[in-house]
Amino acid sequence: MHTYESLLAAVTTTSGETREVLDPATGERIGSVRVDGTAELDRAVERARAAQPEWAALTDDERVAVLGRVADAIEASSDALAELLSREQGKPLNGPNARFEVGACVSWLRATAATPLPVEVVVDDGENYAELHYRPIGTVGVITPWNWPMMIAIWQIAPSLRMGNTVVAKPSEYTTLSGLALAAVMNEALPEGVLEVVAGDGSLGAELVKNPAFGKIMFTGSTATGKKIMASSADNLARLTLELGGNDAGIVLPDVDPAAIAEGLFWGAFINTGQTCAAMKRLYVHDDVYDAVCEALAEVASKMPMGRGLDEQNVLGPLQNRMQWEVVNRLVEAAKSSGARVLLGGQPDSEASGHFYPTTLVADIDDANPLVQEEQFGPALPIIRYSDVEEAIRMANAVDVGLGASVWSADRAKAREIAARLEAGTVWINSHGGVHPMIPFGGVKQSGFGLEFGAEGLKSVAVPQIING
Ligand code: NDP
């Protein structure tokens, strides 16, 4: 069991090539991390490959038992992990943030370990007999982002290990401490070499993807990088799961009770201070309820405290990095200069020490505005007025990504009809963005491909084999 200090000491490096890690809320130094190069990557790959046959030779029950012990280890150090995550990523301890994320790591591991994947008899007609098995791929390369650095790592690592693969993981350069700390705790319960971590700075991701040792790459991040990964893994025909974010639309129908849905709308858009792949990033509201929804949402949003993650009262934090702050600021400025109406926020404090951007709601904005068309990935929500639901569906579908979407209505049947016409991997009804370890999750269009979670998630980190006869 770790304290924050012992965990930080376990992942801090002071000799060799290192990089400073700064608190995004204050700019203070938290620690320093090692910067691995190609030689370290090659060694990690070698260790993971060497460990794979023995790991795959365990029975499924044995691997499940090990994953249970990994979950126990994370649970035992959950306070330390949550504090480190909060300091490095910026997300508050409370609300659907750091403690929630570490708790989700534990529950996802347990659910992934418990998911049945029986051998499937595909034909048994007296003449033919064929079974479908799922075998390990070998070694899986995992590249994780900075928004949910621990939970997304577990989403990729847990099913890979369960299916008999070993893993080389590369955390985002923005949240390396979180990735290293999670792996250090997991490795207390894993055999050596089963989970390796490399901590790069700028070009290691591309090197990892090109390495022919990987039969599979799992990546969560931007569409632009996803395309590069697809191109550079082509030579090895590595299998891919790409979760590339989106620009999720929410459609509010005229029959809603605005006050009743306001909090759900808020968290759908602002979870993790908006830095969430499947957060609601554009809200289409029917004219009949437009003003009431705007008012109710602004009231909820104005009461949500934003500040340093370690202060217990906060539920919103800073943006994790300056790059993302600049994106949000540029898009809100574009909205303001177009004459859109700022209901809340929109004026960052230029004196603030961290990457804070205030909770921002922008009403009466044109659908063509960059704040609507581009992914803001931060705490700024455009609210677009519509009068014909056909128009709302058209606008919702008129982007080249499709991770999630939502429909908000008192009429579930009507909402489901609209849901079926939305181009998104998941459509939620009267909520947005909730994920569950047994419910498959993945995008369409340029949000990527491949399903995570549940039995589908296990199949995606395995190779099918037919035994015929
Ligand atoms: P990127 O999606 O560009 O991902 C960066 C990660 O990918 C790093 O680990 C990097 O490693 C690796 N990488 C970069 N180039 C390659 C390559 N050619 N081959 C393999 N790996 C590569 O994220 P950013 O952090 O730059 O964020 C950009 C935008 O992505 C955000 O503004 C946001 O819109 C979106 N995003 C989406 C997320 C989601 O959940 N879907 C999460 C985070 C961001 P290295 O530096 O070592 O090369």
TrEMBL record:
This is Aldehyde dehydrogenase family protein. SUPFAM superfamilies: ALDH-like. PANTHER family: ALDEHYDE DEHYDROGENASE-RELATED. Keywords: Oxidoreductase. It comes from Agromyces larvae. The keyword Oxidoreductase applies. Signal peptide: none annotated. The active site is at E243. Residues 14-461 form the Aldehyde dehydrogenase domain. Belongs to the aldehyde dehydrogenase family. The lineage of its organism: Bacteria, Bacillati, Actinomycetota, Actinomycetes, Micrococcales.
